[in-house]
Amino acid sequence: MAEALFDMSAMDRPRILILGGTTEARQLAERLAADPRYDAAISLAGRTADPRPQPLATRVGGFGGADGLAAFLKAENVALLIDATHPFAARISHNAAAAAATTGTPIFALRRPAWELERGDRWTRVESVAEAVSALGGAPRRVFLAIGRQDAFHFEKAPEHRYVVRSVDPVTPPLALPDVTAILACGPFAEADEIDLLEEHGIDVVVAKNSGGTATYGKIAAARKLGIEVIMVERHKPADVPSVGDCDEALERIHQRLSPVKDRGV
């Protein structure tokens, strides 16, 4: 029998399920772990082989789409669903919105703001990873690929370039490309270190997703300082649910939604 995710002895505390996988999700989990008013747990998609330990009870793996998540929310009597997934985990976010609507579970998203163009940036904005491949052009280039391992295969269509690919886990199967340097690393990445990396490999273009946040912004700042082009994959339209931009706002939303009136000072 699977271990219970929530505290079965604390039925009087409202249950919160965080769909995680981001720095912000972990920060929120740390705050909720220290708050005895709520019974919170976090769910990870399981896309990394060795995820960092979480401060809350943790579930790893998918739910089986929107219907599976809806069944879980109902069976576990979840009082609040928080979508704190990666900005490019669109399918999970839309499934969360659908499951919340089906069950009547309150939901909001914790979405860190996207990066904005700054003076000195050389961005080429694209709508998809496939467009990013085309944006490289036909002349051989030295590419720093910083989009995660799951979308790296798209660049097999452009074997004329040299690639430095950074990911948390190895790209599997290995890319069918003649010149690939793999770097396994997990952020945060400092700007100075990113400058060293770009210079060491002679990078002349960075391919990145507009994930926002500070943990991986170093490569964007480094590219700006070195005058290197960034092919920026922009976010798609998010799921239509209320959203907040940081943990403080998330905690305020939780408090307003779940705390008794007397605790809110009303």
UniProtKB/TrEMBL annotation:
Organism superkingdom: Bacteria
Positions in coiled-coil regions: none
UniProt key word Oxidoreductase: yes
One GO BP: cobalamin biosynthetic process
Pathway assigned to this chain's UniProt record: Cofactor biosynthesis; adenosylcobalamin biosynthesis
Lineage, opening ranks: Bacteria, Pseudomonadati, Pseudomonadota, Alphaproteobacteria, Hyphomicrobiales
EC number assigned by the record: 1.3.1.106
Protein's recorded name: Cobalt-precorrin-6A reductase
Molecular function terms from GO: precorrin-6A reductase activity
Keywords: Cobalamin biosynthesis, Oxidoreductase
